């Protein structure tokens, strides 16, 4: 029970103050005039003013509430180093027992695990959550058992009570860390890119060598080593060997006595891209389809196109003097002997033998394909004649032989069953909405894969691999009808784009491929194949464990499965003769960027309310009560601030001056003053 005098004025306070001023003025006037009853008049005015102020005696029935102590226990990955988890557990139990022995005190124990993804320790978010649930007026203290490495300190809430940090770790801890800076997501194939690498020691570093051995491995291949200085940035040139994803692993060996090797390696995943794709387009004669090829290739900003159209063949005799012709001479020797290897793709569009390209030049094209080049033949009616490009040294690499028949008839191109599985033709629009083509050169396939057919299921598009290179034959020159919207058109742009990029060996269009798409530590393993059945994928984990995973066909030619990698690192995938490597997790886990225990981040939170920092290895501090505003920590002790919070159960109010008493007193004083003045 507690009693309090309250005032509940009957009139507003400004009017009450005005009345008081007038009363004082009246008493002063009476005193100045020498009236003997001025004191009684003043007392009467005081009684009336007291009555108007409404004094009330309030009695509250209060129930005291317990003080709350919040204990944050860091269970993030960095706490698993050395014996930090054991230190935390022992300190938490000791402090919990000490707090439970205190009267009128409750303990809230909050565990702080790793944040989602690679967000690190989110201790401030956990503290904000618990303070939002508890009445801040009851919080007597906050204890944080941690290594001090929280990653959301900028989201720290305002604290209602002193905070104390009990620091895990050892004073003689030291660690070595590998840092890879300025690693881009993309890089040009076969061109060196400079990465900045730094090996950094922190903590109580012993006397060690000023150099560290850095190992570099690309896609899990044999590592190369180089000595780098410790504590200095080192520029390292790296060259990507192939297009698509390149997984580069950097690592330094574990040094004697260092805290952990979890931050001694870094995984960088960069996509290799070509600087420019150089295409040579040779049109045997002007025709509507020539502009289709040109527009397609020129629309791609990554393609450098060299296009020649033969407008005046050698056999043409029109009587025009040569010195009056404005045509550009076809630089055959330069293109097909000296610079042929500079091109990624050569397209022969309705080209036929006219003596412009000697047999030795075409034989050089054959060698170019065997060494990794690509040739696309878009066949017109001349492909079926005696002047066909097939009747040349190119014949051994072409996947189909003409039958000397050209079919002039309306038909709808169709994707074959094999074409449904091939990345060049899979997922194209449904064939029943395509426009018709009107010409097809009849060919007999000799090798490769027929992915599209035309009239009577005759081969229309045949793809093949020759040596290290690729060859494609399109047995029609009417693809341009789709671009003109004839009978509704068709997916001409997408088909020809995929075809050209498949021939230029774009990784996403490989028909036989094993790769993985990652998100955090989860990977989706994808096997693309022309076969209808595949075996399981063998996964080799960073710790050496090997397991087999079955895949499910999710689309024609595409098999998938999902796997969660339990640890960060390099995973090797194998299915049949196909191999791939993939890195899971960040380049360097955030929890291990800084591993030496330190309370530096907490200083701005601790100082305003005069909390303290204690090393657990030096002993567990005792718990005391301190008044608010006084130092809350000292040598060997930490303080909690009792809050004195309570719950009001009942309130009773009674007037101090009843109306009848006020009337009686005021009347008696006024009458007394009048009588005294009347006796004078």
TrEMBL record:
Spans traversing the lipid bilayer? 12-31, 38-57, 655-675
**Keyword tRNA-binding found:** no
Question: What InterPro entries does the annotation carry?
Answer: Class_I_gatase-like (IPR029062)
Which UniProt keyword terms apply here? Membrane, Transmembrane, Transmembrane helix
User: Does the keyword Membrane feature in the UniProt annotation?
Assistant: yes
Q: Which protein are we looking at?
A: Glutamine amidotransferase domain-containing protein
């Amino acid at each position: 029970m507690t009693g309090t005098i309250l005032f509940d004025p009957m009139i507003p306070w400004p009017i009450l103050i005005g009345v008081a001023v007038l009363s004082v003025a009246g008493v002063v006037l009476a005193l100045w005039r020498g009236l003997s009853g001025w004191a009684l008049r003043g007392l009467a005015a005081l009684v009336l003013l007291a009555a108007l102020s409404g004094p009330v005696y309030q009695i509250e029935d209060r129930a005291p509430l317990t003080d709350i102590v919040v204990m944050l226990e860091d269970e993030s990955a960095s706490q698993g180093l050395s014996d930090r988890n054991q230190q935390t557990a022992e300190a938490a139990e000791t402090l919990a027992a000490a707090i439970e022995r205190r009267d009128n005190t409750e303990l809230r124990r909050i565990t702080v695990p790793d944040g989602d993804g690679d967000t690190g320790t989110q201790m401030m978010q956990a503290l904000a959550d618990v303070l939002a649930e508890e009445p801040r007026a009851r919080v007597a203290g906050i204890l944080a058992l941690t290594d001090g490495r929280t990653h959301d300190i900028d989201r720290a809430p305002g604290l209602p009570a002193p905070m104390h940090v009990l620091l895990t770790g050892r004073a003689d801890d030291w660690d070595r860390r590998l840092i890879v800076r300025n690693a881009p997501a993309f890089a040009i194939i076969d061109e060196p890119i400079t990465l900045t690498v730094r090996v950094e020691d922190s903590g109580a570093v012993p006397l060690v060598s000023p150099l560290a051995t850095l190992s570099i491995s690309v896609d899990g291949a044999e590592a190369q080593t180089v000595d780098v200085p410790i504590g200095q940035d080192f520029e390292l040139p790296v060259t990507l060997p192939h297009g698509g994803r390149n997984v580069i692993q950097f690592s330094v060996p574990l040094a004697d006595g260092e805290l952990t090797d979890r931050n001694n390696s870094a995984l960088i995943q960069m996509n290799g891209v070509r600087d420019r794709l150089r295409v040579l387009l040779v049109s045997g004669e002007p025709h509507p389809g020539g502009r289709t090829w040109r527009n397609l290739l020129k629309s791609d900003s990554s393609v450098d196109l060299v296009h020649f159209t033969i407008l005046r063949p050698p056999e043409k005799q029109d009587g025009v003097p040569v010195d009056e012709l404005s045509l550009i001479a076809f630089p055959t020797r330069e293109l097909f002997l000296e610079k042929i290897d500079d091109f990624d793709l050569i397209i022969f569009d309705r080209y036929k033998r006219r003596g412009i390209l000697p047999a030795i030049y075409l034989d050089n094209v054959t060698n170019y394909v065997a060494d990794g080049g690509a040739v696309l033949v878009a066949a017109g009616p001349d492909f079926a004649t005696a002047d066909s490009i097939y009747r040349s040294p190119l014949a051994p690499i072409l996947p189909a032989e003409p039958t000397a028949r050209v079919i002039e008839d309306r038909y709808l191109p169709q994707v074959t069953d094999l074409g449904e599985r091939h990345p060049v033709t899979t997922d194209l629009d449904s064939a029943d909405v395509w426009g018709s083509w009107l010409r097809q050169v009849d060919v007999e396939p000799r090798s490769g894969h027929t992915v599209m057919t035309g009239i009577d299921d005759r081969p229309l598009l045949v793809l093949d691999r020759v040596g290290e290179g690729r060859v494609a034959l399109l047995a029609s020159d009417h693809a341009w009808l789709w671009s003109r919207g004839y009978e509704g058109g068709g997916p001409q742009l997408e088909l020809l784009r995929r075809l050209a990029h498949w021939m230029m060996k774009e990784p996403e269009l490989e028909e036989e491929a094993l790769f993985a798409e990652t998100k955090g530590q989860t990977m989706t393993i994808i096997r693309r194949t022309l076969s209808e059945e595949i075996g399981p994928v063998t996964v080799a984990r960073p710790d050496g464990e090997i397991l087999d995973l079955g895949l499910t066909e999710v689309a024609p030619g595409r098999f998938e499965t999902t796997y969660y990698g339990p640890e960060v690192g390099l995973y090797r995938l194998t299915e049949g003769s196909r191999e791939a490597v993939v890195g899971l997790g960040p380049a360097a886990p955030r929890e291990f960027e800084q591993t030496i225990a330190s309370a530096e981040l907490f200083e701005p939170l601790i100082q305003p309310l005069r909390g303290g920092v204690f090393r657990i290895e030096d002993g567990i501090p005792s718990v005391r009560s301190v008044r608010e505003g006084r130092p809350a920590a000292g040598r060997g002790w930490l303080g909690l601030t009792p809050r004195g919070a309570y719950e009001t159960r009942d309130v009773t109010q009674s007037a101090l001056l009843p109306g009848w008493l006020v009337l009686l007193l005021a009347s008696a004083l006024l009458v007394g003053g009048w009588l005294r003045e009347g006796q004078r």
